[in-house]
DNA sequence: GAGGCCAGGACACTCAGTGTCATCAGCTAC
DNA sequence: GTAGCTGATGACACTGAGTGTCCTGGCCTC
């Protein structure tokens, strides 16, 4: 994974072959594919942890919390680990921003997260239609926040930026 | 495009090769790639029309419309053409639902639409942060609505389902 | 009818991704 | 300590997506 990111950053994602990554890591191409299902996946191995932490955070929300509040409780444990990964996130974001196929992968990871959140909401007793929309709204806030967080310099700002984005979403959707 | 959809439906997306599609259409593989940039794109050629209609609908919204209202005005011309495409949309959705790489493409098309909507909002004088969130909220409603529309039988229900989803989003985000 | 233009064919090539078998290190058992 | 098992990696061949390049033939214009 480290070998891949260095190469992507230096010479570009498209221009880097799996054979190069494997060689840099002292492995064969075949072994690369035993760890990552495809070339894009090497940049998204953190997504299981993200989902795990999000659901963990949601579990701590009070049982009577409103659906969207329960969803947003997932951000806390996530924002925590993001603090020390700001520099890394910026490099990674730059690589992704330059490649549509990586953006696709990022979007589907967010979508899968939204689906997991929806299930967690249903398990809390939230009705299905409501659950989808609360989950999607939370992911929208997260997505927008993430973009703002990598675009600025304060590594610790994630939590604050989340609240700002959430408030903006609330004011924009207020009838 | 017709040849491709028939083959995808009959034997599966993964199992269908470009050579087969090209042969069924009386062309060569090389010519396929002169019309479609990749294999997934053959299912998404309608996205320019979607974007075009959406922006057209937004242009008709009153200048003093709230951002999200302006966004949702884009649905009208879209819902119109959807009526006669319900059967097609169902086949297409079934194919997409079975293939993660097609879901990725669908998500990035929605994202591009959201970006175009954001630009249109900015052009209407909406502030940038507000514009992103209104655009993303509108796309969330559209995405959820589309899924509901293909899951039921009334081809003309799109407009109504949109309003229901929008109301649900509003109630879920109300503080 | 000579010249120019352009859509499509022919063909070779790269690279992502997969199936399959061989190898080798480490562990367990007796 | 050796026989046998297991799991990780290498070797290698193969398929299919996608691209570069050159060629051909139809059509349009003067």
Describe what this molecule looks like in 3D.
Two copies of one chain form a homodimer. By secondary structure, chain A is mostly helical. The first copy, chain A, is built from ten helices and no strands. The N and C termini of chain A lie far apart (46 Å).
Gist of the model:
The structure is a homodimer of 175-residue chains. The first copy, chain A, has helices spanning 2-11, 18-25, 29-35, 47-59, 67-72, 75-82, 86-97, 100-123, 128-151, 158-173.
Strand and helix map with partners:
The structure is a homodimer of 175-residue chains.
Chain A: H1 2-11, H2 18-25, H3 29-35, H4 47-59, H5 67-72, H6 75-82, H7 86-97, H8 100-123, H9 128-151, H10 158-173
Helix pairs in contact in A: 1-2, 4-6, 4-8, 8-9, 9-10
Chain A binds a DNA duplex (30 and 30 nucleotides) through α3.
Radius of gyration of chain A over all CA atoms, rounded: 18 Å
Shape type of chain A: elongated
Structural class of chain A: mainly alpha
Q: Which protein chains make the most extensive interface, counting residues with beta carbons within 8 Å of the other chain's beta carbons?
A: A-B, 28 and 28 residues
Secondary structure: number of strands of chain A: 0
Largest sheet of chain A: none
Q: What is the averaged pLDDT score of chain A?
A: 97
- Relative strand content of chain A: under 5%
What is the ordering of alpha helices and beta strands of chain A?
A: HHHHHHHHHH
Low-confidence stretches of chain A: none
Q: What quaternary form is this? A: homodimer
Helix share bin of chain A: over 70%
Number of helices of chain A: 10
Instruction: Please give the alpha-carbon distance between the first and last residues of chain A.
Output: 46 Å
